[in-house]
C-alpha cells in the first residue's frame, strides 16, 4: 500500500490519503506499460536494499523529473539518500497488509503536479513488495551477526569487522585498540539469583558498554560473560580512559531482585595495535592483560604495555 503523507508547494492534500485505489477525480498514472514491466523485472533482480533503491531511483527518472530520493525506515534504523535535495517534496508511507516498510521522499526544485504525483505513486506500487523482501533480507543479515540475548555483535561479526579494521588502521597508520572485558564472579550471580537475573546482567553490561563508546566503536560478545570492545582511532591512553569509564559504569548499575539488590564489577584488559600485529595477536595481548587484571584482584583495567616497550626500543 502506498500512502501519500505530504506534498509541498501545491494545493494541500489530505493527510494519510490512500492512493492505491485511485478515485475518479484523481489523475491516473500515465506510464508506458513497457517502463512498468522493465522496472518491475529489474526490481526483482536483487535483495540488496541499497542496490534496489538505486535501481528504482535511476528508473523513476525516466518517467518523472526528480532530483532526490530519500528512503527511511525508523523501525530498522535505515536511511538511504540519492541525489541532491530540492525545495519541493512529496512523501509516501509504504506498507503491506502486515508490515510498515518505511517512507520515501522525492524532491526537486519545481512543484510536483498532480499527474506527476500519480505517476510517482504508480511507480512506487511496483517497489513495495521487492522492498519488503529486501528489508526482511537486511533484517536477517543483521540478526545473523548479532548475539540474540544482548544485541552485541557475535563471533562471526567480530572476525569480519576486526580483521577489516586492523587492515584499515595499518594502511592509514591510525591507532586501534581492543578491550577484553569479563564480568567478575559471574557464576555467583547465576548461582545466587538465577539464570534469568544473569541474563539481565549481561544485557545491562552491553548497555553500559554501548553508552560509553562512540558509534564507530563496536561491542562483541566474545564468550559467555566476556566481551570484546573494538575502539577505532583510540591510542593506548585513550583506550585506558574509555575502559575505566566502562568499568565504572558497570559497577554503578544496581540490579534489584527479591533476594536483595546486587551490583557487579568487571575486569578489563586493553591492547593497542602495533605494526606487526594481526587480529589474533592483538586479541591475545588484550586477553593476557585481562588475565593479569583478574589475578591482581579483579575490578580493574590493565593495559598491555608490550607495544609501548617495542615503540620506544
Ligand atoms: N545467565 C547466563 N549465564 C551465562 C551465560 N553464558 C555463560 N554464563 C555463565 O557464566 C559463568 C562464568 O563463570 P566463570 O567462567 O567461572 O567465571 P566467573 O564466575 O565470572 O569468575 P571470574 O571470571 O574468574 O571472575 C558460568 O556460570 C556460565 O554458566 C548466559 O548467556 N547467561
UniProtKB/TrEMBL annotation:
<dbReference type="GO" id="GO:0043709">
    <property type="term" value="P:cell adhesion involved in single-species biofilm formation"/>
</dbReference>
<dbReference type="GO" id="GO:0005886">
    <property type="term" value="C:plasma membrane"/>
</dbReference>
<dbReference type="Pfam" id="PF00990">
    <property type="entry name" value="GGDEF"/>
</dbReference>
<protein>
    <recommendedName>
        <fullName>diguanylate cyclase</fullName>
        <ecNumber>2.7.7.65</ecNumber>
    </recommendedName>
</protein>
<dbReference type="InterPro" id="IPR000160">
    <property type="entry name" value="GGDEF_dom"/>
</dbReference>
<dbReference type="InterPro" id="IPR043128">
    <property type="entry name" value="Rev_trsase/Diguanyl_cyclase"/>
</dbReference>
<dbReference type="InterPro" id="IPR050469">
    <property type="entry name" value="Diguanylate_Cyclase"/>
</dbReference>
<dbReference type="GO" id="GO:1902201">
    <property type="term" value="P:negative regulation of bacterial-type flagellum-dependent cell motility"/>
</dbReference>
<feature type="domain" description="GGDEF">
    <location>
        <begin position="174"/>
        <end position="306"/>
    </location>
</feature>
<dbReference type="InterPro" id="IPR029787">
    <property type="entry name" value="Nucleotide_cyclase"/>
</dbReference>
<dbReference type="GO" id="GO:0052621">
    <property type="term" value="F:diguanylate cyclase activity"/>
</dbReference>
Amino acid at each position: 500500500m502506498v500512502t501519500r503523507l505530504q506534498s509541498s508547494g501545491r494545493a494541500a492534500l489530505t493527510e494519510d490519503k490512500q492512493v492505491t485505489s485511485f478515485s475518479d477525480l484523481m489523475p491516473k498514472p500515465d506510464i508506458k506499460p513497457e517502463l512498468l514491466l522493465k522496472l518491475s523485472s529489474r526490481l526483482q533482480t536483487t535483495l540488496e536494499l541499497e542496490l534496489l533503491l538505486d535501481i528504482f531511483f535511476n528508473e523513476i527518472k525516466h518517467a518523472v523529473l526528480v532530483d532526490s530520493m530519500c528512503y527511511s525506515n525508523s523501525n530498522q534504523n535505515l536511511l538511504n539518500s540519492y541525489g541532491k535535495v530540492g525545495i519541493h517534496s512529496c512523501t509516501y508511507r509504504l506498507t503491506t497488509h502486515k508490515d510498515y516498510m518505511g517512507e520515501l521522499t522525492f524532491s526537486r526544485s519545481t512543484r510536483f503536479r498532480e499527474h506527476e504525483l500519480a505517476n510517482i505513486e504508480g511507480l512506487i506500487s511496483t517497489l513495495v513488495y521487492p522492498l519488503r523482501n529486501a528489508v526482511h533480507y537486511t533484517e536477517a543479515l543483521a540478526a545473523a551477526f548479532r548475539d540474540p540475548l544482548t544485541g552485541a555483535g557475535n563471533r562471526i561479526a567480530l572476525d569480519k569487522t576486526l580483521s577489516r579494521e586492523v587492515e584499515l588502521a595499518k594502511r592509514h597508520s591510525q591507532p586501534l585498540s581492543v578491550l577484553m572485558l569479563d564480568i567478575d564472579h559471574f557464576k555467583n550471580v547465576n548461582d545466587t539469583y538465577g539464570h534469568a537475573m544473569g541474563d539481565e546482567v549481561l544485557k545491562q553490561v552491553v548497555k553500559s558498554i554501548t553508552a560509553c563508546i562512540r558509534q564507530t566503536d563496536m561491542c562483541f560478545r566474545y564468550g559467555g560473560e566476556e566481551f570484546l570492545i573494538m575502539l577505532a582511532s583510540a591510542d593506548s591512553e585513550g583506550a585506558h580512559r574509555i575502559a575505566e569509564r566502562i568499568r565504572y559504569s558497570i559497577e554503578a548499575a544496581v540490579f534489584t531482585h527479591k533476594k536483595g539488590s546486587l551490583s557487579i564489577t568487571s575486569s578489563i584488559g586493553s591492547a593497542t595495535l602495533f605494526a606487526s600485529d594481526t587480529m589474533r595477536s592483538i586479541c591475545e595481548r588484550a586477553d593476557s592483560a585481562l588475565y593479569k587484571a583478574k589475578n591482581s584482584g579483579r575490578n580493574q583495567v590493565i593495559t598491555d604495555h608490550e607495544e609501548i616497550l617495542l615503540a620506544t626500543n
